[in-house]
Amino acid sequence: YLNVNYLEFTHQLAGLPYPPLYTKFYPDKKEMVWARKKRRGMNGPVIHWVLSGSSVHKTWPFLDQAVARILVKYPDCHIVMTGDDLCKVLQMGWENEQRVHQWAGEKIRNTLTFATAQADLVIGPETGVMNAVGLEAVPKIIFLSHGSRENISKHWFNCISLEPEDCACFPCHRMHYTWHFCHRDEPTGTALCQAKISVDALEKAVELAMNKITQKAA
Fold first, then answer.
1. 44 neighbors 78 (Cβ within 8 angstroms)
2. Smallest Cα–Cα separation from 86: which of 110, 54, 63, 112?
3. Is the pLDDT of residue 218 over 70?
């Protein structure tokens, strides 16, 4: 009974028909100007990467490996890393790479504006940012953790949902703020469900998304 779609269920509770007319984030003019200025100089495709979410199971452990592969494969792309102040630790190590932009700690409304209005691809775990772009046309890749495709991304546009392989506890339908009930992968120090999503799976998803971006630009 927990494997229900969030949008459908909330509409049912409110007594509203589904599908909705639209659900989206609305930036103001000042935020749009900020986002356009930040995009200047990023001449290739821009990947907006949300580094982590509000729970222990919303951090994917293979960020650095994936970023390195992407930069080699797509030398003209830029990667914008966002998240809360704690995510500043996750973005460390890329200070000397001009194609990587470390924006963790930025205001949430600025992050949402850039993701919805300027990014060419958005990647991240089950977070507010991913929900904000869910019904936008921008391609997106989500790392599923506590929720299933049915729960969160069933109705999203241009979305690739990455599920863990060989993970019996997925989906648990539970938010974990400690490791008391969440199964931890000791080698990576992250949730088992995230460690079971491989770099190869992410790389294939990025390739599919990049092909769409290239076709659209042509």
1. yes
2. 54
3. no
Cis omega before residue 171 (within 30°)? yes
**What pLDDT was estimated at residue 21?**
64
Coil/strand/helix, residue 89: coil
> For the segment 139-189, what is each residue's pLDDT rounded down to a tens digit?
999 999 999 999 999 999 999 999 999 999 999 999 999 999 999 999 999
CA distance 193 to 53: 14
- CB burial of 75-107 (b: ≥16 within 10 Å; e: otherwise) equals eebbbbbbbbeebeebbeebeeeebbbbbbebe
Query: Dihedral angle at the C-alpha atoms of 201, 202, 204, 209, nearest 10 degrees?
Result: 140
Residue 143, beta-bridge partner list:
125, 162
Any residues with CB less than 8 A from the CB of 186 and at least 6 apart, and which?
A: none
Q: pTM for this one? A: 0.95
- Which residues 6+ apart lie within 8 Å of 67 measured at CB? 49, 79, 94, 100
Task: Give the lowest-confidence range in 18-27, 97-106, 128-137, 186-195.
Answer: 18-27
Q: Is 37 helix (H, G, I), strand (E, B) or coil?
A: helix
Q: How many CB atoms lie within 10 A of CB 62?
A: 18
* SS3 assignment, position 52: strand
